[in-house]
Design goal:
The chain has four helices and twelve strands. By secondary structure, the protein is α/β, with parallel strands linked by helices. The protein has a single domain, classed as 4-Layer Sandwich (Metallo-beta-lactamase, Chain A). Helix 3 crosses helix 4.
Length: 210
């Protein structure tokens, strides 16, 4: 399967910054929020502690006794021993899934300070490296990311605008980019097409899954 095929068949955009990745052996969620369906999770990755990314209610819907929850220190919530703390530059392996943390922060606004050590994730599933940027602006660390797929926020206000997201895509140079963090709270779904037209990176536009 090529990267585009993997994105279209295995990566589900659940709206906002929320995704489910259906691997051959493992189901991985990133920032589950406002879930309508509750397929059980093997791994749950949480980028930071804002309510629209850290939702204990949504985690409870998909959590199994064996589910591993990975996030920064302030995302421990009530997860107990299931929680594995991670910081930028660190990684964890869970079964056939590898989870790496990379920095995510704002450079021209105060919503996501670098000092909080909030993160994006590079999740390797079925041999594909999927980079969820987290809530971030364009940052120098993106140049060091090696990813097949980049899930990039485009909605502005708290994260990158469309032109900034296009700049980020050029820095990351993934094989495929997927726009996110639009259509709920900030941005519109039209921002996805604007992003596609603004970057030289191949773009797959995902519709929010039920």
């Amino acid at each position: 399967m090529d990267v585009e095929g993997f994105v279209k068949s295995k990566i589900k955009w659940l709206g906002h910054a929320s995704f489910r990745i259906d691997g051959a052996k493992s189901v991985v969620y990133i920032d589950p929020w406002k879930l309508k369906k509750a397929a059980p999770a093997d791994v749950i990755c949480i980028t930071h502690s804002h309510y629209d990314h850290l939702s204990e209610e949504d985690v409870a819907k998909i959590r199994k006794p064996t589910t591993v929850i990975i996030g920064p220190a302030d995302c421990r919530a009530g997860f107990g021993d299931a929680f594995k703390q991670i910081a930028p530059g660190e990684s964890h392996s869970v079964g056939d899934v590898t989870v790496e943390a990379v920095p995510a922060y704002n450079t021209d606004k105060a919503f996501h300070p670098k000092g909080n050590k909030w993160i994006g994730f590079i999740v390797t599933v079925d041999g594909f490296r999927i980079y969820h940027c987290g809530d971030t602006d364009v940052i120098p660390e993106m140049e060091n990311v090696k990813a097949d797929v980049a899930l990039i926020p485009v909605g502005g206000t708290y994260t990158m605008t469309v032109p900034q997201a296009a700049e980020a895509a050029n820095k990351i140079s993934p094989k495929v980019a997927v726009p996110m963090h639009c259509g709920d709270i900030v941005g519109t779904l039209d921002d996805r097409e604007s992003f596609r037209k603004s970057t030289k990176t191949p773009v797959v536009i995902l519709d929010p899954s039920a």
